[in-house]
Amino acid sequence: xxxxxDVTLALLMHTVLGSDPPFQAQSKHAHAHGDLDQSVHTHAxxxxxxxxxxxxxxxxxxxxxxxxxxxxxxxxxxxxHMSKEGLHMVVLHPSSGHVMTHRxxxxxxxxxxxxxxxxxxxxTRGRVLVIVTQGDAVLNLSGLARGALASLGVSSAExxxxxxxxxxxxxxxxxxxxxxxVNYTKPKSIHNxxxxxxxxxxTSSSLQVETLIPIVELGDIASCQNNLDLARAKFCSLYDGYxxxxxxxxxxxxxxxxxxxxxxxxxEVPLLVIAGNRPAYLYRSLVTVLKQHGxxxxxxxxxxxxxxxxxxxxMKLLNVTFVEHIAQGVTxxxxxxxxxxxxxxxxxxxxxxxxxxxxxxxxxxxxxxFFSYFS
Length: 375
Fold this sequence. Notes:
Layout: E1 23-26, E2 31-34, E3 48-50, E4 58-65, E5 70-74, E6 77-82, E7 86-92, E8 99-105, H1 116-122, E9 128-134, H2 143-152, E10 165-171, E11 176-182, E12 207-214, H3 218-225, H4 230-238, E13 271-275, H5 279-290, E14 300-305, H6 309-318, E15 322-325, H7 332-350, E16 358-361, H8 370-374
Parallel strand pairs: 3-12, 13-14, 13-16, 14-15
Antiparallel strand pairs: 1-2, 4-5, 4-12, 5-6, 7-8, 7-9, 9-10, 10-11
């Protein structure tokens, strides 16, 4: 059930053309800015915003946020349909419009939004970023997260309140293409005959934004990727969210020399990493492992639940041994147990002389004394 009380819908449109005095169109619920030499159409019915710039080659985006789902459409094709509520961050390639990464944080849960600044910093300049809130995403959005969004160019970041809806589109480190919000004002309490409050699950109206983004030719991106080795450049042209791994000026290392802890007694002990489809977390965890004294690529085995192309490409890029497995089971607990059973069986089969196994999950960091501690 949706209810919209005192709706405020703001759409900010920025374009690459000229610097003439802005054309302004206003309605009861919409406010738009554009340049005089463009075709800009804005209207609001419920909570809907639309802008059109038709005379340049572009990527056509349509983003929707409702109570049930959030969705992203690129050039008329549905590329993401997201049912989990929270803060969605979607990175699109500026030439093809393909999805390079999608991160979702359930920021309605206390503490979950602390990761927002870290994730935003991991994205590459020049990519197209779509930010969508769904459900209770704003409920526990911290000041740190709001500040990170504001520094990115989200003008409404500091003003968002409970159950407000936000859609924002911009080029990372560049132009802002669209921003729209729907403000939710909680109505007076409504009770049924049993004096039970019946409006506690009401939310703001659905929000949809459409915008056109000029295509950046591949040559502009290749000038950066020429500074990277071929394998890394290919990986970074497909995926995003890896920070320094895809940096042109100061790329992170791909090879980490093996080092031994003095008087180590775990030289035969393998490290088993349990992974799923969270490649950015897996990369972050593996880097903290490979940097430590006592690490060795030969003793690391990643067991992945499922077949995920991005995880596969990442493991090949880092030259890390991995095995893929589809967990079986009726319940989530059964599938987890099945996956762990397979992982332990696999690592002990591969490392027949191992007296023990160190097990690490994909989203964990390791301390500098990790291997010396186990030794």
